[in-house]
């Protein structure tokens, strides 16, 4: 991943007069969704690229060492070897960008990846995921423990109450403390945009999170009723662009929740390319949080190579 975002001083003048033009954002979102997708070998190439952006995720109450082990194996070998050979991509080292687990499962993931002989990063959710409604002291300790156990990326959730009540200084201070607790680990800040009330709040929360030192801003926990949507993404991406113009610092973007189909992933890649440019299309600056997405991408690659769709038993589940 790229160097840490050191953050900036809190400057509320950046956000005080902001009003998001919702109709314009919705029109832009419709344009993206209506666009025809790439086909044939171009599609296969873009889908393989999409694999390298995935934070392969399991956040279930019944996670055990064995399914963390399977997840890590799938992260290392995301597409069946014979399919990669048919595309002449078997020697390109294609893996997912990271695996993402609960704090209590970080040790399991580190152990499984070490046993598989690979250096894929382990990301951990933290700070009272998904609601963020625990004491600050507890949330900070959770970050520190996940880092101690070997997580190199921490996906924190913000306290949405601070956004809804306009307590921007308090939000900035909390994220600054998360940044400090992360130490050398990268900080990905989940805004839980489906619970922020308005697109204007999404822009303001994005900007505060970046000022406070977030290396990535992330749409959702995946547990809200509304998760990653294009209108929200457009607002967050414009905030990233504005922050870059003001500071020269590139901040990463991670949509998560509800991204399940290969077609969805292509639309997200297209959005990033159009809004931020090719330089953001790398795992250091773009991730997709997903669990089911990889299976559909592999099915589409299988279809491209063989001309038929895979039966249930043809592709291994993670």
TrEMBL record:
SMART domains: DeoC (SM01133). It is found in: Cytoplasmic granule; Nucleus. Keywords: Cytoplasm, Lyase, Nucleus, Schiff base. Its EC number is 4.1.2.4. Its main location: cytoplasm. Coiled coil: none annotated. One of its GO terms (biological process) is deoxyribonucleotide catabolic process. Pathway: Carbohydrate degradation; 2-deoxy-D-ribose 1-phosphate degradation; D-glyceraldehyde 3-phosphate and acetaldehyde from 2-deoxy-alpha-D-ribose 1-phosphate: step 2/2. One of its GO terms (molecular function) is deoxyribose-phosphate aldolase activity. GO terms for cellular component: cytoplasm; nucleus. The keyword Lipid metabolism does not apply. It holds the Pfam family DeoC. The active site is at residues 218, 254. It catalyses: 2-deoxy-D-ribose 5-phosphate = D-glyceraldehyde 3-phosphate + acetaldehyde. The keyword Nucleus applies. Interacts with YBX1. Catalyzes a reversible aldol reaction between acetaldehyde and D-glyceraldehyde 3-phosphate to generate 2-deoxy-D-ribose 5-phosphate. Participates in stress granule (SG) assembly. May allow ATP production from extracellular deoxyinosine in conditions of energy deprivation. Belongs to the DeoC/FbaB aldolase family. DeoC type 2 subfamily. This is Deoxyribose-phosphate aldolase. It comes from Myotis myotis.
């Amino acid at each position: 991943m790229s160097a840490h975002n050191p953050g900036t001083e809190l400057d509320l003048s950046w956000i005080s007069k902001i009003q998001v033009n919702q109709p314009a954002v919705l029109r832009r979102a419709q344009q993206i969704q209506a666009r025809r997708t790439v086909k044939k070998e171009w599609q296969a190439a873009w889908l393989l690229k999409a694999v390298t952006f995935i934070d392969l995720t399991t956040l279930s109450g019944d996670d055990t060492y064995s399914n963390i082990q399977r997840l890590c194996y799938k992260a290392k070998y995301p597409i069946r070897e014979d399919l990669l050979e048919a595309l002449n991509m078997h020697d390109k080292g294609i893996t997912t960008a990271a695996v993402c687990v609960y704090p209590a499962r970080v040790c399991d993931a580190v152990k499984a990846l070490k046993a598989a002989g690979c250096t894929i990063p382990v990301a951990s959710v933290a700070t009272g995921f998904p609601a963020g409604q625990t004491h600050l002291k507890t949330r900070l300790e959770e970050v520190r423990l996940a880092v101690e156990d070997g997580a190199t990326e921490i996906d924190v959730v913000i306290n949405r109450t601070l956004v809804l009540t306009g307590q921007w200084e308090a939000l900035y201070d909390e994220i600054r403390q998360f940044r400090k607790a992360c130490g050398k680990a990268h900080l990905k800040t989940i805004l839980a945009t489906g619970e922020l009330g308005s697109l204007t709040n999404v822009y303001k929360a994005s900007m505060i999170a970046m000022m406070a030192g977030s290396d990535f801003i992330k749409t959702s926990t995946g547990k809200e009723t509304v998760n990653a949507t294009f209108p929200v993404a457009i607002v967050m991406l414009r905030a990233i662009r504005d922050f870059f113009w003001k500071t020269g610092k590139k901040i990463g973007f991670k949509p998560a929740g509800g991204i399940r189909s290969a077609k969805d992933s292509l639309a997200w890649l297209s959005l990033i390319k159009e809004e931020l440019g090719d330089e953001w299309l790398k795992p250091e600056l773009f991730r997709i949080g997903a669990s089911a997405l990889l299976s559909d991408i592999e099915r589409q690659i299988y279809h491209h190579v063989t001309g038929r769709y895979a039966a249930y038993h043809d592709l291994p589940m993670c």
